[in-house]
Design a protein that fits this description.
The protein has one helix at about 1-10, and strands at about 25-30, 35-40, 45-50. It is an alpha+beta fold and about 60 residues long. The longest helix is centred in the first third of the chain and has 11 residues, at about 1-10.
Length: about 60
Amino acid sequence: MRARQWAIAYSFREPADYGVPELPAWTVRRRGRSGVSFAENEESGPFIRAENPVRVRR
């Protein structure tokens, strides 16, 4: 639900005008050909990691 709120608020006004929090700025790290991880910044360790992420369609 939050993604939908961000998309609608961004399309029409500033998200903060609707009480929608700003998207977090995460550091994305790629490992090898397929691995990916997310961290708060360059110095911190990853808080989530996927060795074999797959693409999905909505």
